[in-house]
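Quick illustration, no need to memorize.
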Amino acid sequence: CTVLELAGDLDQRSAPELTVAVHALIATTPALRLVLDLTALTSWDSSGVAALITAQQRISGNPAAAMILAGVSDQFKQRLRSIGRTSQFTLADTTGQALRQIMPPE
């Protein structure tokens, strides 16, 4: 399982970095189990939301892979609802909860 912690702004400047990181992880780990920890995310714009949507679409393209967004603020959840994308993501309140959800059963 891989945890990426996003901090600060997820915007036009930083969104491409997230896209590159997720693509690299997928290329090297086909059955990727990814938790994106958004606890320290302070702001986002449409580029940041698009990067998360793209990441989810790439992960969803592989049945063995999974991604969970953890620590999502109420404001960000509202943003996802307002654009009709809430159901596209699996959300967890904390990174610990996300790790318990995403780990395959033993």
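The chain is about 45% helix and 25% strand.
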